[in-house]
Amino acid sequence: MINFNVGAWRPTTGQARAARLASANDLVTRTLAQHGLTSGSGTASSHGDGSETMRSALSGLMARLQPDGGPATPPADIPAGAAFAEDAFTCAAGTRRYHTYVPASAREGITGLVVMLHGCTQTPEDFAVGTGMNALAEQHRFVVVYPQQSRGDNAQSCWNWFSRGDQMRDRGEPAILAGLTREVIARHAIPADKVFVAGLSAGAAMAVILGGAYPDLFHAVGAHSGLPAGAAKDVTSAFSAMAGREAGSAPRDTPTRTIVFHGDADATVHPSNGAAIVRQALEGGPAQSLQTDAERAAGGRSYRLSTTYDADGAEAVEHWLIEGLGHAWSGGQPAGSYTDPKGPDASAEMVRFFFSPSS
Q: Do 322 and 279 contact (CB within 8 A), yes or no?
């Protein structure tokens, strides 16, 4: 028999109250851990105010912005004449390290720059391997930059797309990433109109923020399994946005050239977020536009491709919805984490979209 009166409320003194509060915080932490929202340590905050539990929950929330995958993968062999160097950028908003890949083919002339923002728990090396972007850089003679999120700023190495202080121009992480990009542009004399940004998951959400905040700097965006800018302002709204419920969106005055990839089997970030990115990217554009839809297949997966054209007939936005794909980089390399080798090659299609003659 269960005695429901055992837990009846009774007045407590300071020591007993503190013990109960610690026990409650411990229960919250362990419950969040069961749902993948914390590190699972089960240790409550010694401060007794729940702040550490909330910070742990926040880090765990961002950890959900990644597919199931293995540990980070070391970088692939660098071709003779190429360079994959580490550096750091500092401004008033903070410091971030980054890797720059300069292909051996750059000696024939650099065609542009692609900034690649990794997903949660990933590293620049791992992301480079998984997306295969360095090989495409060799083929097309562009430079690739892989900024690295600091674990001091997010315990799971996630970009803080949901934070109010990291969603606007000249503030927080957008300011750091924009400044970092400008530094690389100047160092390698990169054509100013051939600078693009792409990312996976939390990285995709930050890429979308950058595209809207710095249209003068980033001339197209690639978003894989991400969310629209302004989808969340705090932890609670981030949960809702990821689940496809009550997602917000920051209004825009000008359209942003964007290519979106999302799997229809994504259980981490609901596919409706991909459609929301598309709608946001088209804001500020003409009231009427031409859109085409096609059902196709590549790499063993079917997909639906919706393309919206601008007034000049150029591709303004592409939306790839891939059947059976979870929360992983489509057509990615199995040596990297959080990739699915099946399906269309997201990296190749992004590069094609970025460097198309009409861009």
A: no
pLDDT digits (tens, 9 = 90+) for 268-283: 999 999 999 999 999 9
Contact 23, 29 (CB under 8 A): no
C-alpha 270/C-alpha 216 separation (Å) is: 30
Mean pLDDT (the chain, rounded): 84
Predicted TM-score (pTM) of the model is 0.82
Tell me: the pLDDT tens digits for 204-223? 999 999 999 999 999 999 99
Q: What separation in angstroms does the CA of 87 have from each of 134, 293, 336?
A: 17, 43, 22
Give the pairing of strands 195-200 and 143-148: unpaired
Give the C-alpha separation, 150 to 96, whole Å: 7
**Residue 129 near residue 336, CB atoms below 8 Å:** yes
User: Can you name the residues that pair with 227 across neighbouring β-strands?
Assistant: none
Give the three-state DSSP class for 149. Answer: coil
